[in-house]
Amino acid sequence: MKTSTVRADGRGSSIPEPEYQTLLGRVTDWVEGPGEAWAEEIEATGKVSGELWNQLRAEGFLSLAAPRDLGGAGLSFLQWMGLMEVFSRSHASVRMIVHVLNGTWRAMNPFADEVQRQKFIVPAVAGESVVAFTLTEPANGSGVDITSSVRRDGDTYYLTGSKHLITFGVRCDYWLLFARLEGSSGRDGTVALLVDRNTPGAEVEDTSRTMGVRGTDHASLRFTNAPVPVANRLGAEGEGLAVALGGFLTPSRISVAMSCVGLAQRAQQLAVAYAAGRTTFGKPLASRQAIAFTLAENAADIAAAKALTLTAAAAWQNADPDSTALSSMAKLTAVDMLGRVTDKALQVHGGIGYWQSQPIERVYRDARAQRFEEGTNEIQKSVIAKAILGGATG
Ligand SMILES: Cc1cc2nc3c(=O)[nH]c(=O)nc-3n(C[C@H](O)[C@H](O)[C@H](O)COP(=O)(O)OP(=O)(O)OC[C@H]3O[C@@H](n4cnc5c(N)ncnc54)[C@H](O)[C@@H]3O)c2cc1C
Question: What separation in Å is there between the alpha carbon of 393 and the centre of ligand 1?
């Protein structure tokens, strides 16, 4: 009997190259056409409208990365990264929607039973429900440090604690929330729960006013004895952090690295166009060696980060154990590259680049957010150092 080679994390599927190229062309056309118009609207209103969500869903852009048996397009991870590169040239909120909606199934699927798969994952892959990844806490570090806790009574957990900085935490349908059994410490007592957005005992504060990524909603959450059915727990008690940080984090970090590459490409496009169009002292800016060299440095910087990101993506796709460290190297390298490239791209614009009339102003602000997503540089360096040194640091 022929068995499927597609694993619960999606590795093993792909679509034929001609089909992929057509899809890539369609995504590129959308990003450069309707995507640019949406970017202007989001900046003007500070909101992502329901109409934009509907359009992304109707285009199929929320269901690209998952395997076909979950309702996705069944792309390989490298194919998916090719599309993320293009989506990331769009407004940061578009990138955020596409990245998150195409990503949360990866955390959930390896730990879900069939009932949970149909109830939570299939609607999320279809873009019909939004699941917000809910880990970060205001009073302690992310990971084993979390203190949000649950008390079990029969078939129900009662959740108490706080979370903050939660993307889509206001408008989501479920929070994929990480907590621990009351009284436990370390990894062992952690649990991953799908908490209904409308559960009693949950208070939601809209904290969406951020430096960049305008239009995406963010929430601070407080839970007081909020009931969560035990049936909404993914994996076993003790596997909460495995859901949050296990197989999900590596591909997600690579996706963020590719997001940095795409956004840097957009900054470079804007800088090149500006340098070609602006004349000072009788010559186009682009003809000045100082400006041309700046653009050349940016091009090399972007290409180097992209190459490392693709190396990490190929390693993860091939289940190479080095992919964890490579994902952190790619994210660290790409996010630092993005900082340099957007800074230089804004500088090429001169003072007008500081004005909101110029798209580079938004790109520069949006770039800064990437330093936090899927771990700061300090966390990436810790992961890389652990791979290099093993237990040698004690
Ligand atoms: C736009 C945006 C969206 C986000 N969306 C989400 C989301 O959807 N869900 C979610 O759960 N979180 C989300 N976050 C939170 C994000 O994951 C965290 O901000 C990030 O992981 C850093 O954690 P922290 O803010 O608690 O910083 P802290 O842990 O307080 O760290 C502060 C600084 O100290 C450094 N540091 C901390 N501990 C150590 C250590 N042990 N050794 C060395 N340095 C250390 C950090 O690197 C950082 O520079 C979002 C953040 C942003 C900016």
Answer: 23
Q: Which CATH number fits domain 131-239: 2.60.40.10, 3.90.1170.10, 2.40.110.10, 3.30.70.360?
A: 2.40.110.10
Query: Helix and strand tally (H, E) in the chain?
Result: 14, 10
The pTM assigned to this predicted structure is 0.95
40 flagged as catalytic: no
Cα separation, 199 vs 312, in Å, equals: 39
One-letter amino acid of 53: W
For residue 1, name the pLDDT band (cuts at 50, 70, 90): very low
Task: Determine the pLDDT at residue 141.
Answer: 86
Atom of ligand 1 nearest to the CA of 378: 47
pLDDT band of 393, cuts 50, 70, 90: low
What are the start-end ranges of the H helices in 167-227?
Answer: none
CATH fourth-level superfamily of 248-393: Butyryl-CoA Dehydrogenase, subunit A, domain 3 (1.20.140.10)
